[in-house]
């Protein structure tokens, strides 16, 4: 499964005191001597931990080399780090949480900043403002992490306590373990969190599932999230992007540092395990509520050059055991006027460059094609003048939820929850009856919980939803 090894050198901390080291101006407050001592102690412990954790690393190509598939800088035998964009370009970013944060330059020299630290973009880089009026201009990017000496290294590595006790810094009010890279562009400042993959996976699981759900459901979720993350790392590295994934549901919901023990335990129990098909790590999609039948990745997302991964068999529709009845969105209903439907579809068509941009009076929406398990994959939208338009189920869901000036914003129970629906009615209203919440591809989270309650293991749950995949250990 893994090929083309090459060596990459790890990086450690180097202490340099003096002009470029720990500046007295940044520690000129009561207790600064104690803080320096604690800081040094914390950094020494971090050095010891790092020297054990990050020996020589090797990167690899994931999947077959024929056709030049995805290249990923993942570390075999070692846990990789993932880069998560947590703040899109904005006017300013506030760094807080830890009393002190630190950066190091290319030579390994450490600089300390007091918080709250206000960061703005400048023409040549970044402008940093500390309390008391101390300012610093930085050319290019800066990477910050907590200077809190209470490092998680004081807990045994690989334990729940080690996960929970990680030093964090807060970005826009949200705590993050690991480091945060700030960079400037003409659009403003953006922030990218670089964090150990298992910490990321545990945090995603804590956001995706309800806190009281079964451990087996969490284990299945962790494997799916890790697989999606590692496949995304390959895509991003191949495309030269500075981050691997977004922190929103554009990729996976990432809430920052988590202390939820069940999520952490599930990540530890499944450490390094991923879903694989034909030597490729799956982009293991998942959604909240299937409504009783699966969707297909090939019907939902692009499949052209660069997106061939959406054609892999395990993420297409299969006959599977579904049990999402406990979800209040297993079945749902929305009522809209024909004018509302027409205007939202037209607005979406204008944004997407679709033929619906010319829609004037929608009279009916019918299923044009279903997938192998009967879930609608494509719809035909008809107009009064006889013109019809074809669009995918996911496109229809997004189009019906498009906000339009002059109409109420779509929210709450008025939202169309999935593309698995039927539209009936005439005259003054359309009745939209739907099944499930989300695209329905891959793991159904509510079904995972129900199956876990029946005694299914995390592995069995995964094999139910990703038919034909295998479970392998990436590190």
Task: Please give a structural write-up.
The protein has 475 residues and is α+β, with helices and mostly antiparallel strands. The protein folds into two domains: 2-274, no CATH class; 331-435, no CATH class. The protein has helices at 32-53, 160-164, 197-208, 215-239, 261-269, 297-300, 338-352, 393-400, 445-453, 458-465, and strands at 2-8, 57-62, 71-72, 81-90, 92-96, 100-104, 110-114, 117-121, 125-129, 135-139, 142-146, 169-171, 174-176, 179-185, 188-196, 245-246, 273-277, 280-281, 286-287, 331-336, 362-370, 376-383, 388-392, 421-424, 430-435, 443-444, 470-473. The protein has a seven-stranded mixed beta sheet. A hairpin with a 5-residue loop joins strand 24 (421-424) and strand 25 (430-435). The longest helix has 25 residues, at 215-239. The model is unreliable at 1-76 (pLDDT under 50).
| Major β-sheet profile | 7 strands, mixed
Strand line-up across the major sheet: 7-6-11-14-15-4-16
Number of helices: 10
According to DSSP, the number of beta strands is: 27
Net shape: globular
Low-confidence stretches: 1-76
- Report the helical percentage: 10-25%
* First-residue to last-residue Cα separation: 12 Å
Tally of individual domains: 2
Structural class: alpha+beta
Mean pLDDT, to the nearest integer, reads 85
Strand coverage percent = 25-35%
